[in-house]
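Lab notes, practical 5.
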Amino acid sequence: MKIDTELTEPVDIQKYRIIYGDTDLAGVVYYGNYMRFLELGRTEYMRNIIKMPYALFEDEGLRFPVAEVYTRYISPALYDDLIFIHTCIHEFTRKTIKFNYAIAREGDNKKIINASTLHVAVDISGKATSFPEKLLNEMKSIFANL
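Output from the prediction step:
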């Protein structure tokens, strides 16, 4: 099954230097740590592109847990590499939002991973709910082409 991880504008780019604690004994980034990099990408995407940080929704009792994750590991990241985390929204509905990511290394611009995460809006009790109208309206204005 082919998973679409194409990046569409607007794209937010964050840079991150791999620290020793991100790596395993071989000096390669431990695969689970990429989930932290994806979280960094989408958190800053919400802050920089949508102009609504996650904390704003948490204060209103909303959460956006990951329902699905896809990661295609292409090349390893190593200790002290400077990586660029490219993040975009691929699609959204009243209750879900899908982010796409590409992580590349500085210098050789070697792609490290392609990934996507699907999130569901839930209330404080964990019950699925709709995104707030304010968020939906902002996203519709930004992503009129989706």
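Observations recorded by the TA: The helical segments are 33-50, 54-58, 133-142. Residues 12-142 form a domain with the Thiol Ester Dehydrase; Chain A fold (CATH 3.10.129.10).
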